[in-house]
Predict the 3D structure of the following.
Amino acid sequence: MTLEEVIRNGEGTIVDVRTPAEFMGGHVAGSVNIPLNEVPSRVEEFKGMKTPVLLCCASGNRSGQATAFLGAQGIDCYNVGSWLDVNYVVSLVQK
């Protein structure tokens, strides 16, 4: 299933792992902000999210780290890269 299909079908949870300051500067509507440094201590919260968990950040680096960690915890998650790219897909789906 593609990112567009997941978003179009209302599946999954978009999680932005940038800092709160970065998140406040712009983010995907409806996304959740869990900074990368908080990911390990919030695993149970991720386990309760609607899956798949779609992780984004500024470039895909931090979301890649979060994806590797959460995947090792058995969480259905994907690194979807830059929040700007995700935002673009969301805008296409909402048309």
